Amino acid sequence: MTDIASMPPAADGSPPLARPGKYLTFSLAEEIYGVPVLAVREIIRLCPITPVAHMPPHVRGVINLRGRVIPLVDLRLRFGLPVAQDHDRTCIIVAQVAAAAGGTRPYAVVVDGVEEVIGLTADAIVPPPDFGGAVDVRFITGMARRDTGVTTLVDLDAVATADRTPDPAGRTTC
Question: Which domains does the chain carry?
């Protein structure tokens, strides 16, 4: 589980502010995002994806990774970015996220490409900007100021939790 997962959410229910440390950066629609490296279990090439019926468009399906069936979400679509064709840099980040019953579970996301691991200090991380409520920032734990621009820090626990919606039988979809 990530460092931020053990922190309680802010009073308004938003994710806690990102902590200093190492982050894996990746690209989506020519922008750079980051997740705590401790949450990442592995990075793999795009592999066969099994679609699952009645899923939202951002849920690409599941993958079979060494005998484990893992849900796969397209972060581009989850974040409302334009659809893009998969290419040679498209890859899957397999992470550990908080499980509803406690503990952790594997969760995979498709990204346009992995960039690098960076170290962020406390003074480099600022809270997400206030967009006046018009923009959904529940998946953002902070913004990292870097010489190359700004990196958006993402809470995969929040992304995975938002995907857990009960169906009429009381089961979860992801």
Answer: 4-9+20-163 (2.40.50.180)
Q: Which two tokens stand for residue 152?
A: 């958006």
Residue indicated by tokens 């190492």: 22
Helix/strand/coil (H/E/C) assignment for every residue in the chain: CCCHHHCCCCCCCCCCCCCCEEEEEEEECCEEEEEEHHHEEEEEECCCCECCCCCCCCEEEEEEECCEEEEEEEHHHHCCCCCCCCCCCCEEEEEEEECCCCCEEEEEEEECEEEEEEEECHHHEECCCCCCCCCCCCCEEEEEEECCEEEEEECHHHHHHHHCCECCCCCECC
This prediction's pTM: 0.84
CB count within 10 Å of CB 113 equals: 13
Among 69-73, 78-82, 110-114, which is the least confidently predicted range?
Answer: 78-82
